[in-house]
Specification:
- The structure holds two protein chains of two kinds.
- Chain A is α+β, with helices and mostly antiparallel strands.
- Chain A has helices spanning 38-51, 83-89, 91-94, 97-105, 109-116, 172-183, 187-195, 201-215, 218-224, and strands at residues 2-4, 19-23, 26-34, 58-61, 70-74, 79-82, 126-130, 136-140.
- In chain A, the strands form two sheets. Chain A has a five-stranded antiparallel sheet with strand order 1-2-3-5-4, with helices on one face. A three-stranded antiparallel sheet of chain A has the order 6-7-8.
- In chain A, helix 1 packs antiparallel against helix 7 (187-195).
- In chain A, 46% of the residues are buried.
- By secondary structure, chain B is of the alpha+beta class.
- In chain B, 28% of the residues lie in helices and 29% in strands.
- Chain B has six helices and eight strands; from the N terminus they run αβββαααββααβββ.
- Chain B has helices at 2-7, 65-71, 74-84, 90-97, 119-131, 137-140, and strands at 9-17, 28-37, 41-51, 102-104, 108-109, 146-148, 157-159, 163-173.
- In chain B, the strands form two sheets. In chain B, strands 1, 2, 3, 4, 5 and 8 form a six-stranded antiparallel sheet that branches. In chain B, strands 6-7 form a two-stranded antiparallel ribbon.
- Chain B starts with a helix and ends in a 5-residue tail after the last strand.
- The chains are: A alpha+beta, B alpha+beta.
């Protein structure tokens, strides 16, 4: 059980059904609870762990005073910084080596977005976070526009929409590492991640079959884009 | 004059800072954003305290340099944002840009008894109520700088104040109603 908190604020005061929450009995844990597209948020988080790209941990749970199951996305790092705001108001910090290196290190996200067919990519959906060690990393957030395929084989893997902050900064080695990690994910791991979702058997089959089929097409797309050799 | 008073309204939102999302503590209250609307004009005001980069307040110990630089300029940056925003949804615009560690809280409408005085007077009153101390530069930096005697040092060390106060206001002429 989680409960609404005043210890931090997400955007838009609960727009899109999002609520800032803290874990009941564990006030040191805060997160963002979403009811809409909870299944997609959870699946993206699980797959990101397997693909070794940074997406905040997500768990299913209830929220005090609200009906139904929410996906609760854990806070990512002790500090999270909006890249759009940083670029506009603090360009010297945005252009610093620490920030630019963090963006470059997140290049593997393009392969992950291609695999999951995540289409709504903008700088607002990548977050600069500071870890406990004082280093920075960039994490992907908001996967409500993902996994949207109809074809039996999930269709062709097309060029993913790259967040503007990453344009021209794709690190081939990072993309190669993520493609390899995705290719090494087994069918069983994919089906296990999908089968825990609170959705219909038909939807589970669509998701799992699609992810398995698309896994084999990512390398070709990344090569076509010049993001791996 | 009565007509102007009748249409006058002030909405405000507090601004807070959470130093650590991984182990959140009680947020630090920094200041407020006020939006005043009248029949023919509107005004915005951002008022608050900013941590000093060279003498950070103890609440900001452990905060990264990038976050410190954001926090040290938040009044100016947020004022630019609120003036960049369209006439509608200024608070939504701010909330979309200022989130995570440094954010605005849910706006409130000021009630009639609190609408006494001009926006600057109201802003300082709101600041004192929200932050818990008066908006008084003398209270923050009694003589601009303080001197601290360090054992072993012959001359006292000049210590800059931990907080800086700042406020920005702008009035825009517009037709808000008839």
């Amino acid at each position: 059980m989680w409960k609404p908190t005043n210890k931090w604020r997400p955007a838009r005061y609960g727009g899109s059904g999002a609520i800032a929450v803290e874990k009941d009995g564990h006030p040191e844990q805060v997160g963002l609870a979403k009811k809409d597209n909870a299944v997609k948020e959870k699946l993206a988080s699980e797959l990101a762990g397997l693909a070794r790209v940074k997406v905040p941990k997500v768990e299913f749970d209830t929220v005090e005073g609200h009906d139904g199951t929410f996906s609760v996305s854990h806070a990512h790092g002790r500090e999270s910084i909006d890249l759009t705001m940083l670029k506009d108001r603090h360009p010297e910090e945005y252009n610093s080596a620490a920030v630019q290196d963090a963006i470059k290190a997140a290049s593997g996200m393009v392969a992950f977005h291609a695999w999951t067919k995540t289409t709504d990519q903008k700088d607002d959906h990548v977050v600069l976070a500071r870890g406990e060690g004082g280093t920075y990393d960039v994490a992907g957030v908001d996967f409500q526009h993902s996994f949207q395929w109809n074809e039996r084989d999930a269709g062709a893997v097309t060029r993913p929409n790259v967040p503007p902050c990453m344009l021209g900064k794709i690190d081939k080695a990072r993309v190669e590492a993520t493609v390899s990690a995705i290719e090494n994910i087994t069918d069983e791991q994919i089906r296990s991640a999908v089968n825990q979702l609170p959705t219909t058997e038909q939807e589970k089959k669509r998701l799992a079959d699609g992810l398995v089929a698309r896994r084999a097409k990512i390398r070709e797309r990344m090569k076509a884009e010049g993001w791996i050799d | 004059m009565d007509r102007l008073k009748k249409f006058r309204s002030v909405d405000w939102a507090g601004v807070e800072f959470q130093p650590n999302l991984s182990a959140p503590a009680k947020p630090i209250r920094l200041g407020a954003v006020l939006l005043e609307a009248c029949a023919v004009w509107s005004s915005v005001m951002v008022i608050g305290r900013m941590p000093n980069l060279d003498a950070r307040p103890h609440e900001f110990e452990g905060v990264s340099e990038i976050m410190m630089k954001i926090a040290a300029k938040w009044v100016d940056s947020m004022f630019k944002d609120v003036t960049d925003a369209g006439h509608e949804g200024k608070f939504d615009y701010l909330a979309d840009r200022w989130k995570w560690n440094l954010y605005i809280v849910k706006p409130k409408v000021l009630r009639a008894p609190d609408l006494q005085g001009n926006l600057e007077t109201i802003g300082k009153r709101i600041y004192q109520r929200f932050v818990g101390e008066p908006f008084d530069e003398k209270a923050v930096k009694p003589s601009g700088e303080t001197k601290q005697q360090i054992p072993g040092l012959a001359a006292p060390l000049v210590v800059p104040p931990a907080w800086q106060l700042d406020e920005f206001k702008r009035r825009t002429m517009e037709q808000l109603g008839t």
